[in-house]
Write a structure and sequence with these properties.
Distance between the termini of chain B: 40 Å
CATH class of the largest domain in chain B: Alpha Beta
Number of domains of chain B: 3
Distance between the termini of chain A: 38 Å
Structural class of chain B: alpha+beta
CATH architecture of the largest domain in chain B: 2-Layer Sandwich
Largest interface: A-B, 31 and 26 residues
Structural class of chain A: alpha+beta
CATH superfamily of the largest domain in chain A: P-loop containing nucleotide triphosphate hydrolases
Order of helices and strands of chain B: HEEEEEHHHEHEEHEHEHHHHHHH
Shape of chain A: globular
Largest sheet of chain B: 5 strands, antiparallel
Number of strands of chain B: 10
CATH superfamily of the largest domain in chain B: Reverse transcriptase/Diguanylate cyclase domain
CATH topology of the largest domain in chain A: Rossmann fold
Radius of gyration of chain B: 27 Å
Strand order of the largest sheet of chain B: 2-1-5-4-3
Oligomer: heterodimer
Chain lengths: 365, 341
């Protein structure tokens, strides 16, 4: 069993910079946990503390049942794949993968068995006699993974391993890493700033910002029930739309009103927060681009807008709209007739509206 | 063998001997001892006459011998038995006879640590048939303490064609005799990181021609490493030849540095402790003053980045979107770093 537990983990640098603040995180055995967030959020520092590359300033870390704060990195039974994975240029693929095992004086038979098995899993057996300069980018990435796999660690750590690859290769390697995780059945902890990677690869996602954990959940929950405005804005492409709104009680129900329109809040939504306390109070309304219906007929809905820019992506169209001084993004099916400067009307799917407290930015609905 | 190898051999021997065994230089300075408390201290040595190389003195057996570096060393053992004298004789003979058995790496170590003069270095290099006109590039690989043996193992296996020289308990020297070291150095960083989960820092000296010029390359590597640790704390490899600006700042006389800093830095001090603004500026420089790329990597809207750049301009007077302002701000940051150090 090799789950990981971080309790009250802090990292404070000598200059006083508090990079990671009171991180509490349980990573289950065999889980694919993604640490995601913007540059400087603390995700890489957290990973480095797990690896032992950074000392933990405060808090406790366990791998399995073992407290590992003071355990030397090389004795933690983890393998790390770095962003700049650099293969050893004068060695064959086989020698690259067996290098660490030879240093540890493993027997020839054991080395051969592990390298062959890892190469088989990665689909690079035919490449074992080649040198790195004879390999494609994706093949080199696989060899770098192979170096980690042959160590049979309890935990794999990966620090943005795909960020140096071109977009097409990145997509391909994402799928391969998911397969690899299933095949190896080992705990993976993966750092990325790319929210698409996070959503497609993780069994659970830990979103971080400013050294703090914002939310830890499976991808679907992170997307549909973001805990705060930051998570809501960070996850999802295009980003969620945010509007200043006010909660108003009308004769026919409770509305979130904003410049240019209003949205009726459902009974279910009202149950989720103390709505009475928020009557006549300002909140932030969030709505995802795909939850906005765009009508070419201006009269079809109450919210009026004008198209600024259209982005035809083939399977869908992204519309950049101007609505009463607010910039809105909507996602629609491809529509050849819609063009820039066209006036349109909008319907918000009120079952998909998010509300956030104006001050705390915590999710209300 | 050189003095480092003698020390290592000595450590293996003294456990086999009854009594306190001491290895010192001719002034009585204790280099190694089976009694740790004596190391670094001094022993009151007897005087050896010209023809004498062994003395019994105050219950100790002393044996003097000459090292390959021309210096005199002394072994001492505090045991009066006949066998004691035999033991010490054996050890001394081994050290003495082995004076000629030098490796290139040992000669290089002694030369770079100033244990031997240029003349002795050249003589010894000639003896071991080292090509005196070859090109060398000295790299210093700095690592945390306690892993020197593992580091040496990795480097020797990874870069068999280079000289691997343990320098002290946190530094290894890699001395290359050919080109294309960039790729190799990157793989050194990766290998050490993956195998030991330790991140080394590497300072790379300039390429020099001739055995004696190796010291220049070594000194350049020291400077490059120092610059890396002071100014580019997240980088792993620092090349002397690419570090013009920080090297110039690092080597500037203190008064001159302060005077220039005062003249060009404007109001940088107002933002110097603002982590968000400084991070913004650094990323902006790293992405060649490109607003789009910088905002993406910081995960902020372009407008937010522009707001921050405007804020920096308002507070400091530097508009980082203009090259000259960016350059002066950049230099100011380096200078501030050195002043803080």
């Amino acid at each position: 069993m090799a789950g990981l537990s971080l309790t009250g983990i802090n990292k404070i640098y000598p200059n006083g910079y508090h990079a990671v603040k009171d991180v509490e995180l349980e990573i289950r055995d065999k889980e694919f946990m993604i640490l995601v967030g913007p540059s400087g959020c603390g995700k890489t520092t957290t990973l480095r503390m797990i690896a032992g590359l950074e000392e933990i300033s405060k808090g406790e870390m366990k791998i399995g049942e073992r407290v590992v704060n003071e355990v030397s990195p090389k004795d933690r039974d983890i393998a790390m794949v770095f962003q700049n994975y650099a293969l050893y240029p004068h060695m064959t693929v086989y020698d690259n993968m067996s290098f660490g095992l030879k240093l540890r004086k493993q027997s020839k038979e054991e080395i051969d068995q592990r390298v062959t098995k890892a190469a088989d899993i990665l689909g690079i057996e035919p490449l074992l006699d080649r040198k790195p300069k004879q390999l494609s980018g994706g093949q080199r990435q696989r060899v770098a993974l192979g170096r980690a796999i042959v160590r049979n660690p309890q935990v794999f750590l990966m620090d943005e391993p795909l960020s140096n690859l071109d977009a097409k290769l990145r997509v391909q390697m994402r799928a391969e890493l998911i397969k690899l995780h299933e095949e190896l059945s080992t705990t993976f902890i993966y750092v990325t700033h790319d929210q698409t990677e996070a959503m497609t690869m993780g069994t659970r996602i830990c979103v971080m910002n400013n050294g703090l954990i914002q939310q830890v959940d499976d991808p679907h929950t992170i997307y549909t029930k973001p805990a705060n405005k930051f998570v809501a804005g960070f996850i999802g492409a295009p980003q969620m739309n945010f509007l200043d709104a006010r909660i108003m009680k009308m004769d026919d129900g409770v509305y979130a009103t904003f410049d240019g329109g209003r949205a009726l809040l459902s009974e279910e939504a009202l149950k989720q927060f103390e709505s009475e306390k928020y009557i006549n109070k300002d909140v932030t309304l969030g709505i995802r681009p795909e939850d906005i219906q765009v009508h070419h007929d201006e009269s079809k809905a109450d919210i009026k807008a004008k198209i600024d820019v259209t982005e035809l992506l083939g399977a869908e169209t992204i519309l950049y709209l101007e609505m009463n001084g607010n910039k809105i993004i909507a996602k629609t099916k491809p529509n050849q007739s819609i063009k820039s400067k066209d006036p349109v009307s909008l319907t918000f799917d009120t079952t998909r509206i998010h509300l956030f407290d104006k001050e705390t930015e915590l999710a209300l609905v | 063998m050189n003095i480092d190898r003698r020390k290592r051999v000595f450590k293996k021997i003294y456990g086999l001997v009854d009594g306190t065994l001491i290895f010192m230089d001719s002034d009585g300075y204790v280099l190694e001892s089976s009694d740790d408390s004596r190391v670094g201290g001094y022993i009151d040595l007897p005087s050896f006459n010209n023809d004498q190389d062994r003395i019994m003195y105050r219950g100790w057996s002393f044996r003097q011998f000459k090292g390959h570096d021309g210096r005199l060393y002394v072994l001492a053992l505090d045991n009066k038995k006949q066998t004691t004298q035999t033991i010490i004789e054996l050890i001394s003979i081994m050290f003495e006879e082995d004076s000629d058995d030098l490796t290139s790496e040992e000669v290089i170590t002694d030369y770079l640590k100033d244990r031997i003069t240029d003349e002795v270095a050249l003589e010894l290099a000639g003896k071991i048939k080292e090509d005196l006109e070859k090109k060398y590039t000295v790299c210093i690989v700095e690592h945390k303490s306690g892993i020197a043996d593992e580091m040496e193992s990795i480097l020797r296996n990874l870069v068999p064609d280079a000289y691997t020289v343990p320098f002290d308990n946190t530094k290894m020297l890699l001395i290359f005799k050919d080109d294309n070291i960039d790729e190799v150095l990157m793989s050194v960083v990766v290998a050490v990181s993956e195998e030991l989960l330790v991140e080394p820092k590497i300072g790379v000296g300039t390429e020099v021609e001739g055995f004696l010029k190796m010291k220049d390359s070594f000194n350049d590597a020291i400077t490059a490493l120092g610059v890396l640790k002071t100014y580019r704390t997240t980088d792993k490899i620092s090349y002397y030849k690419k570090m013009a600006l920080p090297i110039i700042i690092n080597e500037m006389p203190w008064d001159q540095l302060n005077r220039i800093y005062k003249a060009i830095s404007g109001n940088i001090h107002i933002v110097i402790d603002d982590d968000e603004l400084i991070l913004t500026a650094q990323r902006f420089f790293e992405h060649s003053l490109n607003v789009t790329d910088t905002s993406q990597v910081l995960f902020i809207h372009r407008n937010t980045l522009i707001y921050r750049l405007n804020k920096i301009e308002k507070l400091t007077g530097f508009d980082l979107r203009k090259f000259e302002d960016a350059l002066n701000f950049y230099i100011g940051l380096y200078m501030n770093n050195r002043i803080k150090q």
